[in-house]
Amino acid sequence: MLADSYGSDVGLNLSGDLAVSTALQGHEYAHTLGDVMTAAVPLRKEGRLAGAVSLSQPLRDVAAVLADLRIRLALSPSCRSCSRRSSGWCWREPSPALSVS
Predict the structure, then answer these.
(1) What domain range includes position 64?
(2) Could you report the per-residue pLDDT of 4-51, keeping only the tens digit for each?
């Protein structure tokens, strides 16, 4: 491991970890176990596999970030003119001039 947000696992060999080993084989991995979500993706440099990036995060943190993004999106200038909101995303009704009869 080259980098760790806590700095405690730098230098640790995680190639035996399922998420990391899957990414090192060139495949994406995502899994939720209990209240923790883990994702890993292959890291490529000039089209060749160079390593893997892995992230584990408590679901409460993921939910908090998504809630914050929804609020920011709803408050953004491009979304203020939306006439309808659906599933947290903003959609504009088609212009009458563009409607197909």
Answers:
(1) 1-81
(2) 666 677 777 888 889 999 999 999 999 999 999 999 999 999 999 999
d(CA 82, CA 94): 11
In the chain, the number of structural domains is: 1
Does the pTM surpass 0.85? The reply is no
**DSSP symbol at 20:** H
77 within a domain of the structure (yes/no): yes
Would you say residue 89 lies in a domain?
Answer: no
Instruction: Tell me if 29 sits within 8 A of 17, measured CB to CB.
Output: no
Q: What is the 3-state secondary structure (H, E, C) of 50-93?
A: EEEEEEEEEHHHHHHHHHHHHHHHHHCHHHHCCCEEECCEEECC
